[in-house]
Please model this.
Amino acid sequence: MTSATNQFHIGLNGLTTCVGPVEDREWAYHESLVKADYERCHPGETFGDLKHRARFSKEDLGLLREWMAIAASRAAERDKRQAATPPPKVA
Model:
């Protein structure tokens, strides 16, 4: 299921690209991977504040894009580790 609330777009050299995952579930997962770090780096501010401002500010949209890129990297690393872990043996 997709949601218009998670569809952030950024224009780069005349091309528009989507910021972050489109699926609600995947967006929530990626956001959970960076939310605490963002809020630690920006005291008194929430990740929700950034998402709200990103709709009106290209600077904040770029910042959101960077944080979601970090989230995608972390998600890929977790997927890689999980794939490398053998399934538990059943007796």
